[in-house]
Amino acid sequence: MAVPKTLGIETEFGIVHRGVDEPNPISASSLLINAYLSRRAEPGSGPGAPRVGWDFVDESPSVDVRGFTGLDAMAPEIETHLVNAVLTNGARYYVDHAHPELSTPECADALAVVLQDRAAEMILAESMEAANEVLPDDQELVVYKNNSDGKGNSYGCHENYLMDRSTPFGRIVQHATTHFVTRQVFTGSGKVGCELPFRNRFDVPFQITQRADFFEEEVGLETTLKRPIVNTRDEPHADPLRYRRLHVIVGDANMCEVATFLKVGSTALVLAMVEDDALDPNLAVADPVRALQAVSWDVELGATLELADGRRATAIEVQWEIMATARQYLDDHGDEMVGGPVAHAGVARWESVLSALETDPDSLAGQVDWITKRRVVDGFRERHGLAHDDLRLAALDLQYHDLRPDRSLFARLGAETLVDPENVRLATAEPPHDTRAYFRGRCLARWPDRIVAANWDSMVFDVAGGALRRVPMMEPRRGTAEHVATLLNTCETVDELIKRLAT
Q1: pLDDT at site 226
Q2: Taking the model in full, what pTM does it have?
């Protein structure tokens, strides 16, 4: 049976340190985040203000849902020594290998994810501003919300969804794969050129997604090598007897709010339908990896995919079938597990976007990233009489994702918005009210000097006498404003909070 779809996004951002001969992306990422943390510290506290770091005790990225554990089951040692902060909005902001990464707080519906994703962009923009204030005048840190450096390296935008532990994983693989392969038609961010090994870069002048070229497996544990369409990491960050977390690595980072809304909203519905066994078992793609790339390269949207039962269908036709089933699912099962009224709005937008993809794709400029970007790239190429392999087009592609407000091409396009900018600003500091992120964020805001560490499912407090007390948060829908707002507002100290939590 479906469980409430708690969801979120973790985005790996591209970073460039301009003005230095040998830039170090790890140092640049650390400077970026530290500059933000210093700016956000209490007035007068400066760089020495209390900072709550990430608690790695529960990190086990190599535990595989298929029943085995890798030799490196603990968090990589390097990650535990890099900047790894928890923000008052409940998010995690850290250096991941060689780039900055921000994980949104847990959200209860797709629209809340859009809000937090926009807040993440605002946090990164402020981080750039703060970092560049302390750099020499001839240096600059620039951050991009994209997924490829154009040199064969890819960094991800990962989605996370909680599911019922009892759901057969094989069923998840079948239906999630079908959805991931075909949803690209509205989730792709677009890319100039191709980065598939052994292919000429400009064999594909423009494609729908940034990530498809980098996937080699249908199912697997890896995230950086031999990337799988369905990831098997078994790290729920919640009650492991009840939940599994599906860690989705196959999506692009989106600039368009509508694309983000559809990406997470449609996927949450698909996974709920998987849990309740509501999807057609015959709807499956025959060769998912090749199909993933075929869909990405098909900007005319007319190519057909071979399905497991021998039929052929376009990605849009497969999406129509999934969307129709989702609409029926809401009628039959209600919307409580998939975001309430937001789920109905998501299905309505899903339908309208599919209709536009069939009849007038260009009308989706400002809603779907790859269409928006293609319009910019094609217009520039035609105005200047450029060939498809002109490197200025690749530079234009990158500029679309620039998070500097004054340099971002996307920011100039007037894309459709789903969330209020003032609410986005508030969300950089305030946590969602309807998940456990509320408890984490409010505690961090009130008692940062009495919190030793935090992670998704627990917090460690420094209580009277120098003792440490871990407070578990294994249920993502507890610790909400409804549950704990009165408690937090009436407790004057951490010691009082811990005492009352124990009663």
Answers
A1: 86
A2: 0.95
